[in-house]
Specification:
By secondary structure, the chain is mainly alpha-helical. It has a domain at about 25-235. It has helices spanning about 5-20, 25-55, 60-75, 80-100, 110-130, 130-135, 150-175, 175-185, 190-195, 200-225, 230, 235-250, 255-270, 280-295, 300-315, and strands spanning about 140, 225. Strands 1-2 form a two-stranded antiparallel sheet.
Length: about 325
């Protein structure tokens, strides 16, 4: 089978299964899948920048938080319609990311990671002390207007958003710009030597990543109905996003989705046995073992299994 048609067939099968899922699982399972969908969106957003270009960001919750807080403040404090607040939140996220991270894009390696981490921590502190009448201070904002009601409607909303994001990223990464971004991750000096402006390419990757993060953060805020700085800017949240992208398969579109679902259901499975934060050590250990065994992630394991099945069937 042609590789392109093979991928189309897999995406079609995935979409068919996901859209039929509410008919076969409980409402509790659906809510778990909803959180997996949102985690997949956040992991894809992180991967657009860090997985493709190799610039590891430790400040991604900064972008997600801006999107979530912007739409929450607009709808809760100023009675702005959701239809207007979400696009505004995305634009604000991209503007804030451009202003704050543009200097960081000229830094390489661990310095870039530390700068982004510092901005996430700065955002965590500022949200608590600046205009608590707007941000809710340490308690955050509750009673945020919801977009939809019920597990089934929330599921289809999050699934549609995930599919739109995934297909958009897949199409963009198949263009010359996407190829150039992946080339930066392999050898930035060679890309610069070929005459391409790597700063503009990295800025595009960051703004594209910020757009997805802001969009996901805004919809997430309206789904859960409450946000707080301790939850959005938590190191465990950052860790989960990065691990989802890495163990699923960085620099791919399907990898972060696979990793997000794997981690979400692993955490839910461990919850009855380890209700506290201890379960993060377990899933962290599992993630480390998977990454050590196959650095290219679960998607590479699936590809290896597929190749073995094809070889056996042909003999």
């Amino acid at each position: 089978m042609n590789i392109r048609w093979y991928h189309f067939a897999l995406w079609a099968a995935f979409m068919a299964v996901m859209f039929a899922l509410p008919e076969f699982v409980s409402r509790g399972t659906l809510r778990t899948v909803i959180f997996a969908n949102f985690l997949a969106i956040f992991a894809i957003s992180w991967d657009v920048l860090s997985g493709r270009t190799g610039y590891i960001s430790f400040g991604h919750p900064f972008l997600i938080g801006i999107g979530a807080y912007t739409t929450a403040i607009l709808t809760k404090r100023f009675d702005v319609a959701i239809e207007a607040s979400i696009p505004i939140a995305v634009i604000v996220t991209m503007i804030a990311g451009f202003i704050v991270f543009l200097p960081a894009l000229r830094i390489k390696g661990s310095y870039f990671a530390l700068v982004t981490l510092a901005f996430m921590e700065l955002m965590y502190q500022l949200v608590q002390v600046i205009r608590p009448d707007l941000t809710g201070g340490t308690r955050g904002i509750s009673g945020i207007q919801g977009i939809t009601r019920g597990a089934v409607n929330g599921y289809y909303l999050s699934l549609t958003l995930l599919l739109v994001v995934a297909v958009t990223v897949w199409l963009v990464m198949r263009t010359r710009v996407g190829t150039a971004l992946s080339a930066i991750g392999m050898n930035e000096e060679s890309v610069r030597g070929s005459g391409l402006d790597t700063t503009k390419l990295k800025l595009f990757a960051f703004l594209f990543s910020a757009l997805i993060a802001g969009l996901g953060g805004a919809f997430y805020a309206h789904y859960v109905g409450a946000i707080a700085p301790r939850a959005l800017f938590d190191i465990n949240f950052l860790f989960t996003i990065i691990v989802a992208a890495l163990i699923g398969g960085a620099a791919t579109t399907a990898g972060p989705i696979i990793g997000a679902f794997f981690l979400t259901f692993l955490l839910e499975y461990l919850r009855p046995y380890l209700p506290g934060a201890e379960r993060y050590f377990i899933y962290g250990g599992v993630a480390l073992l998977l990454y050590m065994y196959q650095p290219k992630g679960i998607i590479a394991l699936l590809e290896t299994m597929k190749d073995r099945i094809i070889r056996r069937s042909s003999t």
